[in-house]
């Protein structure tokens, strides 16, 4: 069977899966689901040793390591162990790396769809070092080298080179941008203060954004990835909603109404801000038109309403209300009409986030006094608990491809940021510094 | 007309009438159902709204150029990084909070503590607040701030609402005891400023707190 057929079978499988789901469960048909199904056929991909063509073995090793992690985490590819399959690599120091006919033949025979290889070199030039990285792709289905990339830059962007190449691979095989260049914003404790930080999605290249020595909380990305919007305290007596521009560090206040001003969420088109404020008494959800500044109160209830999260098409919001006693998830149209309760299981369901694919809402569910992650379909028909064990899991945030969630957990004592696949598997810890890391927010795709 | 039937204890009933918000809505029953409260309000403008940049996505494609059989060099630069926002009053709030706490402790003001998931004032809490109310009547010029705090369990977001309910329950009881409402302000810190960090009930108890403070500053 040729690889072209394999890939088309895979794509066909996607469509069939989506159609089947749509028919059987009357939910939104979506390719996301297949990534968590056992019959999902990932594309097999092997990464050969990156050849050091000068300067630094560390560099080649690092590129290979980052690339392999990205490939595995994409969930589009299945990373195969080339030596484990018995594929004989030539001595990569022959100058060509793995890009030889002899290797291609073995790769095709073993049913590996894609082979990636590359080179890396490091030139010291005075104060400024220069890094050059090349990556190439062989597709066994078409039996051709489909192309490659050449990157140049300073040693500080080595990880970015690997991430960028990984996203090119995902884009090539799915038409989607991939998540390797995405970032996660979060809150970290500094002394008694809480400050905003941003890191790469794999936990590296952390950068601090705020340093005002007080409380900066619950950041959310703007759709264009240029800003974070978050809750802050203007002083010890009052709370605001602020924005900060990542490229400049410029920060300003966007909502200062008095009372609680929390859980800001920009609509997918950036035209509306939904947030919760208690300036009229108790916490209610408001919608601000960011262009006209017109404000509309969406909830009318003598109870706490908070945590609005937009559906991907911007037409609906999921939110939390304790109008029935404990917090539960509710849905409403983005004008506040058509309110209906979504969760009925358990007495504490909160912190909802609508998947960018639209077909799931992730949230924090309480079972036997433990706070864990659950997902529920917007029609309420399907519900699954994703995490188990001790500790408080909080603040789920979807990756832009809808295949992963970041969240905070105290499972290992201190609060840290973790990532899981959307089926709850393959848990990976992302933060290791500090005593308290919380409220992760995954950026849109680059 | 509000068809809500409140079954709260008589002690809190007055404050509910005054404030119009539940001090103990867990014990309340709403006969009207949610369908009564689903209409959005009318649009209006309001002060306290800052400027918004256009945050809509300008272009798609993610800047990827695709694989190329003869790839040309792509030069990657570090992303632009703004100067870290570091306001001149870094840490000042924390110092002033400590000063407020010291002044309140010196005045003998007592905090009020709450049960898990609860914002109901206990008998012990009522005694503490009665004591505080007497001090407030003897010191009629002092402005009072009630801070609501929560233990580490539950979500960050919902704990802000829970903290505010606790602070308001304490404030409402002080009003009921005769302290002028305009002397009292509330602020919720959720679980973001715990007084201890152990994962144990003895610490959780300390953090489920309505802190009564002599307010300084705006």
Written account of the structure:
The complex is a heterodimer of chains A (446) and B (218). Chain A is α+β, with helices and mostly antiparallel strands and 446 residues long. Chain A is globular. Chain A has 2 domains: 42-174, Rossmann fold, CATH 3.40.50.10070; 183-442, TolB, C-terminal domain (Neuraminidase, 6 Propeller), CATH 2.120.10.30. Chain A has helices spanning 3-25, 57-74, 101-109, 158-174; strands at 43-47, 51-52, 77-80, 114-125, 128-139, 144-153, 183-190, 193-200, 207-208, 216-221, 227-235, 238-245, 251-255, 261-266, 272-277, 284-289, 295-297, 305-310, 316-321, 328-333, 340-341, 349-354, 361-367, 370-376, 383-385, 393-398, 404-409, 416-421, 428-429, 437-442. In chain A, strands 1, 2, 3, 4, 5 and 6 form a 6-stranded mixed β-sheet that branches. A 4-stranded antiparallel β-sheet of chain A has the order 9-8-7-30, with no helix packed on it. Chain A is built from 4 helices and 30 strands. By secondary structure, chain B is of the alpha+beta class. Chain B has a domain at 97-214: OmpA-like domain (60s Ribosomal Protein L30, Chain: A, 2-Layer Sandwich), CATH 3.30.1330.60. Chain B contains 5 helices and 5 strands; from the N terminus they run H-E-H-E-H-E-H-E-H-E. Chain B is elongated and about 85 Å long. Strand 6 of chain A pairs parallel with strand 1 of chain B.
N/C terminus separation of chain A: 35 Å
> What would you report as the Rg of chain B, rounded to the nearest angstrom?
24 Å
- The H-level CATH homologous superfamily of the largest domain in chain A, spelled out, is TolB, C-terminal domain
Record field, number of beta strands of chain B: 5
- H/I helix tally of chain A: 4
The rounded Rg of chain A comes to: 24 Å
Q: State the CATH topology of the largest domain in chain A.
A: Neuraminidase
* Subunit arrangement of the protein: heterodimer
Shape of chain A: globular
Structural class of chain B: alpha+beta
Q: Biggest interface pair, residues each?
A: A-B, 132 and 90 residues
Average predicted confidence as pLDDT of chain A: 89
Strand content of chain A: 35-45%
